[in-house]
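re: ur question from yesterday

yeah so i grabbed the chain u mentioned. its 225 aa long if i counted rite. heres the sequnce exactly as i have it in my notes:
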Amino acid sequence: MIGVPEYQMTAALWARGILADEHGVAASDITWRNGGLEQPGRRERTPISLPSSIALKPIGPDATLSGLLAAGELDGIIAARAPSCFTTGAPHIGRLFPDFRRAEEAYFRKTGMFPIMHLIGVRRTLVERHPWLAASVYKAFVEAKRRAMAELAQIGHLHATLPWLVSEVEATQALMGADYWRYGVAENAREIEAMIRYSHTQGLIDRVIAPAALFAAATASTARI
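ran it thru and got these structure tokens back, copy pasting raw so excuse formatting
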């Protein structure tokens, strides 16, 4: 029995997809419980209707996922944040993959995928009125990222309180390439296709959707100078 703050959250979507692809454990093989990680009362933000093959029930109104895990009433948790029973060092609570960095690096080498989490949305009526808007917003974020990444590589003034920050950047680029935090539709095509497939097999959407149907056309094919 595995707990998730929300079944439809992106972190859980990726975790379930990777468990299925890499370890043969389908979402339908697991009994799911949803609710607040540390505070009771959390529910799915958007109503979902899952097929009968997916067993999902909310936890009790006064319960938390962390508390249930600590009490042995859950076998595990998938969440974007570590539960308090893990961070406080409960002796019977640990990571599914203790050497998680090695596992994640091996996953990237095998698949070439860096799981993505968020989108920038623009109101449809604004894009219809200003067809250039979506591409311009995308380019602005790409430029902001370029500047931030350049600062990470500065040796004389570290932009995070880590002593070997520059070495970490270099090691990451050696494995994942210079643009390891990719922005854009084409740049993340493999990840987007995987997320659509995961959403379908996990009961969140009733059909496979073409990636092009999800994005403003101008962002999928931006002009280059």
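noticed a couple things. The beta strands are 2-4, 31-34, 55-58, 76-77. also The chain has two domains: 2-96, 124-220.
anyway ttyl
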